[in-house]
Amino acid sequence: MHNIHAQYVKETYDEKGILTSFTAVCPDDFNFGYDVVDKIAELEPERRAMVWCNPEGEEHVFSFGDMKRWSDKTANYLAEHGIGAGDMVMVILRRHYQFWFVATALAKLGAVMVPATFMLKEHDLDYRLNRAEVKAIICTNVGDIAQVTDAVEASCPSLQVKMLVNGAGGGLSEFDAEGKPVSADGGPVGAELSGPEGVCAATVEREGWLDFNAGVRAASDDFERRVTKAADPMLMYFSSGTSGNPKMVMHDSKYALAHIPTAKHWHNVVPDGGLHFTIADTGWGKAVWGKYYGQWLMEAAVLTYDFDRFHADEILDLIGRYRVTTLCCPPTMYRLMMQADIDKHDLTSLVYSTTAGEALNPDLFAFWKEHTGLTIFEGFGQTETPLTVANLTGSNPRPGSMGKPIPQYTVEIQREDGTRCNTGETGEICIKMEPRPAGIMMEYYRDPEKTAAAIHDGWYHTGDTAWCDEDGFFWYVGRNDDVIKSSGYRIGPFEIESVMLEHDAVREVAVTGVPDELRGFAVKATVVLAPGFEPSTSLTKELQTWVKHRTAPYKYPRVIDYVDELPRTVNGKIRRTVIREQDMHKDEDGLI
Questions:
Q1: Residue 404 forms beta bridges with which residues?
Q2: What is the pTM of this model?
Q3: Omega before residue 330 within 30° of 0, cis
Q4: Up-side HSE of residue 374: CA atoms within 13 Å toward CB?
Q5: List of residues 6+ apart from 82 with CB closer than 8 A
Q6: What's the distance, CA 94 to chain centroid?
């Protein structure tokens, strides 16, 4: 390890080795592609960067030398088709290894990467392409996103270039009686693509599209550094809220450096001999949190599994097979692992576990500790930020607490008038912006009103609520929009969900508010039952009594709805907004 990251940080520790201060140091011309990926390739070209595999049986081990070569080839190919500094490029590549080639190449070109999920429908994609004036789209042929693009192209005048990546299955292949993948068109698939010559070997034909794999393979790997500025836009995400159209969250290159604490002090990655596994699709911000910036700044390797649907046993098998050392996934995925026969899997390689995306239930914390011997270290951040509050390495997490503000930021819990909340008082999580720290978004692109509403009076207002205990630990309550205001009380969903999950009948639960003439809103629990339980009036009363006896009685769910599954994002986060919208429509129709 060459400690490349050290030139970009100022950090101090106490006598126990606990991080006490952290500042990112960003040169004006810093570029993640050149100064991290290419630098490691220059110093240690054979250092492992990523192990990539898929359910079809394909596997590749990429070194940093490989990543430099393939990103240089990709940069030349993109430049050949007119993509350069400042251009908006939408990238929809699921978990294909080509994402890392493209992300690094776009950084080198000074273009702006706009990752997106393959789940977008026509209305979603049309809005995004036009709102951001996207010039090029690079997307997978796995699933139907190419068809969706073709359907909206005529109404998107900025779109000039369409590149299609053959994803070689992406976990959606058909399998024969022997469990081997079968290609519908007779082309290569799965393990047939493995090996040094297999990278980008699968071609694709679609009218109006360029074949990305073929073009990149044919491109030169001789690419000279271009002039770029760290303060220029580098990365943009569409972040959906509970109402209105998605916001465009813009980041500059300092965002990459701000993820050093993510990997070094929270994921606790092992640079030499380790393998980090963050389970995230590249269409979501968590992918660059856990599979790119911080991990590679720490010269650590990442594991990527290009699957379609999450199966706990499948993921647990990967940990043993590839000797994963550090793991990060949302609580929902830990819970699904909890429901599998975890003890039949070899998890002895694991030395560290982390979680983010939702608040961690104490029962899950205890289960993981009992069966693996490991503590789960929770963290918090947003699309607009890197890690901001966390249980860092060396700390003693309190089950259910998101931790303490990391030393990179000054974080307060504030009232609506901007004053600081007292201990135990719920308020909004706010981050000090003067002086402006690295990693917080530049702006909501093309939306000065929303930018001003979020960043004002010297603070960034996250829209998330929490309370702080007497020892400085933060306890998550919910999004401002998730908090239920009932009969004058402010009720956060997480506490009720945690209590209900301790009941044997409850497999999963989402707590929301439903309109109530008397109370304004009433607490509602949408429940997925555990095997062996059936919905009934008596069970509903039992669950309500269970909550009344374990938390403040006014918080109990007056409405309980039983469903087969909860609405989720591709990363497994519960979409409470979908439940609320459905309930509002029911209310408008007079059905509840």
A1: 390
A2: 0.87
A3: no
A4: 20
A5: 135, 160, 161
A6: 12
Q: Which two tokens stand for residue 78?
A: 């993109």
Please report, as a single letter, which amino acid is at residue 413: I
* Confidence band of 228 (pLDDT split at 50, 70, 90): very high
> DSSP of 351-420, one letter per residue?
-EEEE-SSPPPHHHHHHHHHHHS--EEEEEE-TTSSEEEE--TT--PPTT--BEE-TTS-EEEE-TTSPB
Is residue 368 within 8 A of residue 353, CB to CB? The reply is yes
Residue type at position 92: I
Give the pair of three-digit tokens for residue 270: 């092992």
3-state secondary structure of 180: coil
Name the residue with tokens 């706010």. Answer: 430
**CB–CB of 62/97 below 8 Å?**
yes
Angle between helices 331-339 and 312-322 (to 10 degrees): 100
Angstrom distance (rounded) from CA 364 to CA 383: 25
pLDDT (tens digit per residue) in 473-518: 999 887 777 778 787 677 878 778 888 998 999 999 999 998 887 7
Amino acid found at 361:
N
The structure tokens listed for 377 are: 């270290």
Query: Terminal CA-to-CA distance of the chain, rounded, Å?
Result: 61
Tokens in use for 368? 């993981």
Decide: 263 and 298 in contact? Cβ < 8 Å: yes
Three-state SS for 466-519 is: EEECCCCCEEEEEECCCCEEECCEEECHHHHHHHHHCCCCEEEEEEEEEEECCC
Neighbours of 564 (CB within 10 A): 6
> What's 303-332 look like in SS3?
EEECCCCCCHHHHHHHHHHHCCCEEECCHH
Cα 481 from Cα 241, distance rounded (Å): 9
- Least confident piece of the model among 167-176, 387-396, 424-433, 502-511: 167-176
